[in-house]
Write a structure and sequence with these properties.
alpha+beta; Beta-lactamase; 2 domains; eight-stranded antiparallel sheet; three-stranded mixed sheet
């Protein structure tokens, strides 16, 4: 295997504004490469090591959708079920309709949000950081919630999200939003357990992911969690604005963004999915048929127009993961799937090649549009 280009690439990240990074990949069940570069803490000169913990942000979504699919396998719901069957706050939704004259009107949704929609980001639910009316209203409603308390539950958050208008009629478009927080709440309702407890008991502990959780004591985070750095004009600045969400007493389990993990732990999870849902040790978290369902492109032609991030141009979207559909556009292999996180984490899972790989960093901007295709192409060049 030729690793010189990988070595060179990871060693160059500090000059691009990445304090430190780590990367590892497995091929046919064997660890074939790992790299630890730069710092977990620049000021203390603490290097990135195998013990370094990272904020997963949106790579948490894979845990969340896996958890819900476990309950799907138990026959507790169907993908075509209306969401309000389990979460009644979503029974009567309104859609924000933007008229040509600039006026926004609210109309009753013609179709219910389906469980499939919240997994595939076709629900109409949005985040609160976009300029359109639905997002602004969600921001306002969350403001009312946080005015009561900064420490609210997953249930309170999801009920607040249900009060906001949808950005579009369910199932008609694709939009990245808070759908997977709703998935986490659905896991709670169907399982009868707090979401973080369910994931710990049914995914983390069975796979031996002992360094992965939604919350750790402050002393553990201070010792092992890589600092999250903003980088601007050549200057690194610590960004700890969201770290209160990882406190042991935090009430909300953010299914879309809340987990902390290590490189090795996440690689265990990725490898289990690569193997069709069962770890090398024989621990089964999903059936092979469910993994194929999970990682199959579900976008319609209209929805694909919305999934328009340039670095995702060769991908479709499944039940919570990107799915390679056009490898000729940017390299890669048909069927490779995974996702990324706001702080620059990335996972690649390729059953056809027998590959699983994970990259970690904690940086803003994360340079994801460059890193996702570049690291992918370096991987396949190295193993070819």
């Amino acid at each position: 295997m030729k690793t010189e280009n990988l070595d060179r690439y990871f060693a160059s990240q500090f000059d691009k504004g990445i304090a430190g990074c780590s990367f590892a990949m497995m091929l046919h069940g064997k660890l074939v490469y790992e790299n630890y570069s730069g710092y977990a803490d620049i000021e203390a000169k603490k290097p990135i090591t195998p013990d370094t913990m990272f904020r997963m942000y949106s790579m948490t979504k894979l845990f969340t959708c896996t958890a819900l699919l476990q309950l799907y396998e138990k026959g507790l719901f169907n993908l075509a079920d209306p969401l309000y069957k389990y979460l009644p706050e979503f029974r009567s939704m309104q859609v924000a309709v933007h008229r040509p004259n600039g006026i926004v009107e609210l109309e009753e949704a013609r179709n219910p949000i389906l469980v499939e929609n919240i997994m595939s980001m076709t629900s109409g639910l949005t985040y609160d950081n976009a300029p359109d009316y639905a997002s602004r209203e969600f921001h306002r409603i969350l403001g009312e919630l946080t005015a009561q308390s900064l420490n609210y539950t997953t249930e309170q958050y999801v009920k607040a999200a249900a009060k906001a208008p949808l950005a579009f009629e369910p199932g008609t478009h694709w939009r990245y939003g808070t759908s997977h927080e709703v998935v986490g709440r659905l896991v709670e309702v169907l399982s009868g357990e707090r979401f973080s407890d369910y994931v710990d008991r049914h995914i983390f502990k069975p796979l031996g992911m002992n360094d992965t959780a939604f919350r750790f004591p402050k002393e553990v985070r201070d010792e092992r969690l890589a600092k999250f750095y903003d980088y601007k004009n050549g200057v690194f600045t610590v960004n700890d604005r969201e770290d209160r969400l990882y406190e042991p007493d935090a009430l909300m389990d953010r299914g879309g963004a809340g987990a902390i993990s290590t490189l090795g732990d996440y690689l265990k999870f990725a490898e289990a999915l690569r193997r069709g849902g069962t770890s090398a040790e024989g621990v089964r978290i999903l059936a092979p048929e469910t993994v194929r369902l999970y990682a199959s492109d579900r976008l319609t032609p209209a929805q694909r127009k919305d999934f328009d991030w340039l670095h995702m141009r060769c991908y479709g979207y499944g039940l919570g993961v990107r799915v390679m559909t056009d490898p000729w556009m940017d390299g890669g292999v048909m069927g490779e799937f995974g996702w990324t996180g706001k702080a620059g984490t990335m996972v690649y899972i390729d059953p056809a090649t027998g590959l699983s790989a994970v990259y970690m960093e904690q940086a803003a901007p994360s340079l994801e549009p460059d890193h996702l295709p570049q690291v992918r192409n370096l991987i396949y060049t190295a193993i070819s």
